[in-house]
Write the structure tokens for this entry.
Amino acid sequence: MNRNIKDTIVESLTGVSVLLIIFIIVSILAVTIAGGWPNLNWSFLSEFPRDGMTKGGIFPAIIGTAIMTLIMAVAAVPFGVVTAVYLAEYANEKSWFAKTIRFAVKTLAVVPSIIFGLFGLGFFIGFVGKNMDGLLNGGELKWGQPNILWASLTMALLTLPVVIVAVEEAIRTIPREMREASLALGATKWQTIKKVVLPGSVSGILTGTILAVSRGAGEVAPILFTGAAYFLSDLPHSLSDQFMSLGYHIYIMSTQSSDVDATLPIQFATTLVLLLLTFSLNAIAVVLRYKIRKNRK
Amino acid sequence: MTTTGLLVQENYGSNEDVIAQTVANDAQLDNSGNNQEIRKKPSSTLLSKTWMPVSDNPRYGLWPLFLGTLKVTLISLLFAAPISILAAIYTAVFAKPVVREIIKPVIELLAGFPSVVIGFFALMILATLFQNIFGYASRLNSFVGGIAMGLAAIPVIFTLTEDALTAVPKTYTEASLGLGASRRQTAFYVVLPAAVPGIFAAVVLGVGRIFGETMIALMATGNAAMISMNPFDSVRTLSATIGAEMAEVVFGDTHYSVLFLIGSLLFIFTFILNALAEFYFKNRIIRHYQAKK
């Protein structure tokens, strides 16, 4: 075959692959928007589900997701930042300890989300919760069952690597000269980190937090049996309450609902809400990250 | 054969194949006289061919789950790997810098789609679409599930492959182009071979992503634990089994333990995959460039 023709064919094939992927992304968006938009209004966002979940809104699911990701972020971000500071500032890259931690973080990032769910069930509920009940409540069942605290902590473990990676990347963009200037002025290493490194990586910490929240809001597998509930007539009032979540709501409504067809508009609209939420969070993170990378150059 | 009757009644899977298989298995068990023993020790059924944890004679055969997971992973990979690698070649080698800056974040958007959204898309749209095209019987099957899980794996494979391709030294490309090779020849005979370890690592991590995917498997694969190599049959994966059954088991029960066993297997498997990608392939990349320098 003529070389030029072959070149053109192969090059177009690679181009077509890109277009196909983009087409898939656009269709997922288009389908969700087309199916969900007509049903998306204020009352849908602000009402409780009614009539056996066939009517009404998704207010408790939105609030549940918000509270869960908030507790998750409170648990994951400080821990992640500290780890990132250690890895970027203190760790000796060649030591086995630093290598082990780095490998552990990477492993944590690829462990299937359902495994986190199992861990949450076995560790937080079965071990920590049961023992808390034994010590605090005289054996009465309160913490040894699924609730929003255990679900959030499980999700925090899942999103920890997201925070660590984003923060470490940001810390590494801070120019060496700034650290050296601070050290040369007599500041200790810790003072340098507190006054120079961390303030300089605020946008990185923010990026990590946003990415973690976006990931946590979308994941369902870890909360399947650590705290998410099918339907609750009330919002969670304490850490030992169960909660409703957007992702879990979509899963339940589309697979276990008694009349899947009747609730289709609700399912599409819920999916659209979840997609808009994670989408806008990711978009913000992308912009922030772009700015960080630009600073580095 | 009274047990068989009970089993059929209690079998919540509606698939007739599963029931037929169970009946056959039961007959076999009766013949070999192992039935009583199995009743006493449910864990001894781990290697049997039936997954039926909820019955008065529970079976925890992992084979259908293993084979199901393997089948879905294979379908998924056959779909996701070529398309992601080709797309990565376009982005890293052929595309103009401006275009590349657009393509990369757009495809990475796909990584930000929650898996429950992709599962919902597969359940509502892909399942019907594929059924209309191929005309198979069960709407949710390993093909639909595999394609949907492939969507989740595409950004993983794409991003890592693209990184591997751009990491190939510019001098390689320039030398090749300077010798009069076309861009296509340079891409496929120079850049691609140099990036092979990195691409392997990308695919390996993609496998890990597919293997552990739970929500898409739960929503789009039909969830019938049966042994079949037909891509259009329903299937139940390891992770979906945990997701579907863990909420209903008794704490500390045999069923509970078996689900944790499956979880451990999943964890060990992804751990090995990640270690492979991290150490073996990365070392090979480094050695590769050092040897060529």
